[in-house]
Design brief:
38% of the residues lie in helices and 22% in strands. With 462 residues, it is an alpha/beta fold. The strands form three sheets. A five-stranded mixed beta sheet has the order 3-2-1-4-5. Strands 8-7-6-9-10 form a five-stranded mixed beta sheet. Strands 14-13-12-11-15 form a five-stranded antiparallel beta sheet, with no helix packed on it. Pfam families: RT_RNaseH, RVT_3.
Length: 462
C-alpha cells in the first residue's frame, strides 16, 4: 500500500460521501471517501477525499470505545465542516452509532455531540466493503506506532523549586531528582517580608547551593514562576533592582555547573507545594488540632485576664468592684513591682480594711461613670438623628408606596396632606388638602384610611 498510495479525489457538488471511523486506546482516525463508477471497472470504486487522525489526550483515552467512535464522528464534522455541510454523509461502521447518538437517554458529552451533529445530513449504514476501512485502520496503526512516550533524561539532575506565601510567612520547597530517579526533598522558611518572586528566587538559590554542596555538575531547574525562569536564563531583563541582584546571584551560582538550564515547570512543582504543606502541617496544624478540645483548661486563664483588665465603661476592673482591691497579677511578681517588694503584713491588713470600707463608694463611682459613658454613646449615635414631629393642621408630603408607573425621574413624594389627628408612637391620620371636601370621613372626623408613620412624612412648605 505504501508503494501505491491512494490518490485523493475531488468530490462533485452534492455528491454522497462515506465516512469511515477507526479507534484504538490512544488514537482516533477518520477517512471520508466518495463512491463512484469509473471506466473499465464493473463495480463502484471508492476514492479517498480527506483523512484525519488524532492522538487522544490522557483524559480522552479513558473514554469507552463507543464514545471514541462518536468522538471520531464529531471530530470529522468539526474539522471537515465544508464537506459535511455540502454533501450527504453516510457513516459506515459496525458499531450502533445511530442508536447511541439518536437516543433520548443520551447525556453528558454524547448529548453535546448529538446536538452539534443535528444540523447535518448524516445517516448510517453497515459496513460492506473493507477497502476504505482498511485505510482508516492503517492510519490508526501508523499513529499508534509513531506515538512514543518521551524518553527519560539520564544526563542531568532535576530540581523543582517553588516559593509560597503563607499566613505565618514565606516558605520554599525544593525537590532534587537524581539520575536514577531518587528524590531529595528540602524545605526552608523565609524570615523576612518578601514578594512571591523573591520567594521563588530564594528557593532557586538555596536549591543551587544545595546542589553545589552535593557535587552535582549538570542540573535542570524547573520553576513555577515564568518571570524567575526567564530572567535566570537571560531571556528577560531584570528592571527592578531587587530582581537584578537576585539574578546576579543566580548567575554566579549557575557558573559553577558544567550544564545548568532553567525551564518553566509543567505542573510538577505541585510536589514541592505538597512538600511545603507536609513540613508545615506537623508544626502548625497538628498542634492546634491537639489543643482543639482543651479550651476548658484555658478558660480560667482567659477569665482571669478579663477580670483583671479595667473596663472602659466603669474605669475599674471587675475584680476591684467585687473585692475592693486590685489583684496581684503575674507581671507584678515577675518584674518585682513596688507592691510586691514593699509588701508587709501589717500594711497589707490595714489596706485591706480600708478597701472594704471604700468598696461601696467605688461601686457608686463606677455606676456614675457607666451612666456618663452610656450617655456619651447615645449622643454620638444621635448626632445625625433629626426628630420629626407634627401637629394637627400641619401640611405634609407622603412618601409614594406604589411602584407601578414610576420611573427614576418620578417624584418620590405626593401631596400635600393635612394632619387631622395625632396618635401615639409618631402616627398620624391624613386627609388630602386638595380633595378634603369630597373625601368621606367617619364619625371621629378622620380619613377612612390607615394612619401613617412620621418616617414616611415630611413637612410641606407652601
Amino acid at each position: 500500500m505504501l508503494t501505491t498510495p491512494p490518490v485523493l479525489a475531488a468530490p462533485t457538488p452534492k455528491e454522497p460521501m462515506l465516512l469511515y471511523i477507526a479507534a484504538t486506546s490512544r488514537v482516533v482516525s477518520t477517512v471520508i471517501v466518495v463512491e463512484r463508477k469509473e471506466e473499465g471497472k464493473a463495480l463502484l470504486v471508492q476514492r479517498p477525499v480527506y483523512y484525519l487522525s488524532e492522538v487522544l489526550s490522557p483524559s480522552k483515552q479513558n473514554y469507552p470505545h463507543y464514545q471514541k467512535m462518536c468522538y471520531g464522528e464529531h471530530f470529522a464534522a468539526k474539522k471537515l465542516k465544508p464537506y459535511i455541510q455540502e454533501h450527504p454523509i453516510a457513516v459506515v461502521c459496525t458499531a450502533p452509532l445511530a442508536e447511541i447518538i439518536g437516543s433520548r437517554d443520551a447525556s453528558g458529552r454524547v448529548a453535546k455531540w448529538a446536538i452539534d451533529l443535528a444540523p447535518y445530513t448524516i445517516y448510517y449504514q453497515p459496513r460492506t466493503a473493507i477497502k476504505s476501512q482498511a485505510l482508516a485502520d492503517s492510519l490508526v496503526d501508523w499513529a499508534e506506532t509513531q506515538y512514543l512516550p518521551p524518553a527519560p533524561d539520564f544526563t542531568h539532575w532535576r530540581m523543582h523549586f517553588d516559593g509560597s506565601k503563607m499566613r505565618t510567612g514565606f516558605v520554599a520547597g525544593i525537590v532534587l531528582t537524581s539520575l536514577k530517579g531518587d528524590k531529595l526533598r528540602y524545605v526552608l522558611q523565609i524570615h523576612f517580608a518578601a514578594s512571591n518572586n523573591v520567594a521563588e528566587y530564594e528557593a532557586l538559590m538555596h536549591g543551587l547551593r544545595l546542589t553545589k554542596e552535593l557535587g552535582i555538575r549538570r542540573i535542570r531547574c524547573y520553576g513555577d514562576s515564568d518571570l524567575v525562569v526567564q530572567q535566570s536564563s537571560g531571556d528577560w531583563d531584570a528592571k527592578d533592582a531587587n530582581m537584578a541582584s537576585y539574578r546576579f546571584l543566580v548567575q554566579q551560582l549557575s557558573g559553577y555547573f558544567e550544564g545548568c538550564e532553567f525551564l518553566h515547570s509543567n505542573g510538577q512543582v505541585e510536589r514541592a507545594n505538597g512538600l511545603i504543606l507536609s513540613g508545615i502541617k506537623p508544626r502548625l496544624v497538628e498542634p492546634l488540632e491537639r489543643l482543639a478540645g482543651c479550651w476548658l483548661d484555658e478558660l480560667p486563664a482567659v477569665l482571669w485576664s478579663l477580670r483583671t483588665t479595667p473596663n472602659k465603661s466603669t474605669g475599674f476592673t471587675p475584680f476591684f468592684l467585687v473585692y475592693g482591691a486590685e489583684a496581684v497579677i503575674p507581671t507584678d511578681i515577675e518584674f518585682d513591682s513596688p507592691r510586691v517588694t514593699m509588701y508587709t503584713e501589717e500594711e497589707a491588713k490595714e489596706a485591706r480594711e480600708d478597701g472594704v470600707d471604700l468598696l461601696e463608694e467605688g461601686q457608686l463611682l463606677a455606676l456614675s461613670w457607666s451612666t456618663i459613658y452610656q450617655q456619651s454613646l447615645r449622643r454620638y449615635y444621635n448626632r445625625k438623628v433629626k426628630p420629626r414631629s407634627f401637629q394637627e393642621g400641619d401640611l405634609v408630603l407622603r412618601l409614594i408606596q406604589r411602584t407601578s408607573g414610576q420611573h427614576k425621574l418620578s417624584a418620590p413624594w405626593e401631596g400635600p396632606f393635612i394632619i387631622i389627628k395625632v396618635l401615639g408612637n409618631d402616627s398620624y391620620y391624613l386627609i388630602d388638602a386638595q380633595k378634603s371636601r369630597a373625601r368621606k370621613r367617619d364619625d371621629s372626623g378622620k380619613e377612612t384610611e390607615r394612619p401613617w408613620n412620621a418616617n414616611l412624612l415630611r413637612r410641606f412648605y407652601s
